[in-house]
Design a protein that fits this description.
The protein is α+β, with helices and mostly antiparallel strands. It is built from seven helices and 29 strands. It has four domains: 152 residues, 3-Layer(aba) Sandwich (Molybdenum Cofactor Biosythetic Enzyme, Chain A); 56 residues, Alpha-Beta Complex (Molybdopterin biosynthesis moea protein, domain 2), CATH 3.90.105.10; 70 residues, Molybdopterin biosynthesis moea protein, domain 3 (Molybdopterin biosynthesis moeA protein, domain 3); 97 residues, Beta-clip, CATH 2.40.340. Helix 4 crosses helix 5. The longest helix is centred in the C-terminal third of the chain and has 18 residues.
Length: 413
Amino acid sequence: MMRRRLAVKPLAEVRAMMRSAFPCPDRIATLPVAGAAGRVTAAPVSSFLTIPAEDIASRDGFAVVSSETVPAGSENLVPLRNPSRVNTGNAIPPGYDAVVMIEDVAGRDGTWSTKRAVLPGEHIFPAGSEIRRGDLILPAGHRIRPCDIGALLSCGLTVVDVREVRVGLIPTGSELVPAGSLPGPGGAVESNTAVSAALLGEAGATCTRYGIVRDDPVLLREAIVRGVHENDMLLISAGSSAGTRDFTATVIGELGEVLVRGIAMKPGVPAIVGRIDGKPAIGLPGYPIAALTAARELALPLLAAWGFSPPPVERLRARLAGTVTADPGYDEFVQIIVSRAGDGYAATPLPRGAGPQMALVHANACLHVPRGTGSIAGGTEVEILLTGQCREQGEVCEPARDREETVPVKGST
């Protein structure tokens, strides 16, 4: 019997629909500051401490009354009256208003003199000069960096409120076995949800992988009900096509509604976007490259719209070493091996049909062929998304800020 052809929708249209259909969940988690890197602040974060708490020395030397040093010069040593020895970071004793650096002092204990006059406040960090209690450290919506952790801890904070989004991932398929198990004939180790969880986790999502669900609509329904209840977004791996054991669309439709079934995106055409209890339920194809593409091109942009973005990635310009054949009716994502070629880069498309797992390992870049483009001839200069190191003796592509031919990418393709 001939398989029914999906009436696919353009990728850009699907993304726009998802942004309007699924508002950002209002979930907040309180985390230890030391473990909050990569998370997004839920509210402005203010200092608990005034730093420094009092005037401190910014140089090693002697705390003095500045007016007593005014006559000093290279040929006119001025005795210091009752100087107080301080090191960098020491509190300035009451009654003193400047520090004479140790390099500008001559003499010995009890008979110190200076050859340089100092002004009031010179070589002193005033109290609160770095930050005062109640001052802003980080604004709301800020992605916490490692350096921010030091500032938060130094300002007296041990926990921080961050925005949280929970993503559940359900693997389906009677042929699947868990990692560490030996698959039988026709079987496979379940890995798609691990890959998607790692991808979405980089954007700051809290991901939960559930156990493998066999090809049974009753079991799948139970798993989806639980997953929707416990998460803000649900990804169901496999079962999105039109085979006799593909139940994802049917179950989503019974529990909510199927918004999109079939997307003009290769790989990933059979992907599903549904809504259950107001939450997105995304059906991923079972083929590993298609599953990764669908997670990257559907779930990741929605997370970004909610304020959860992965670390910045890089693009560069490269010349195709072979022709890329693409359907003009689809957005296509082609696995590429990019390498140095003289002063530029060469991009070699991986052959279609290559092993689904190892193709992702061997590729170090991805070429997005936008809908309406069609095939691209060899020798054409294209923009590619880096996913790994440039080839040629292990050389790593330079960051965008250091090279004219690379530019930062703020989101996914």
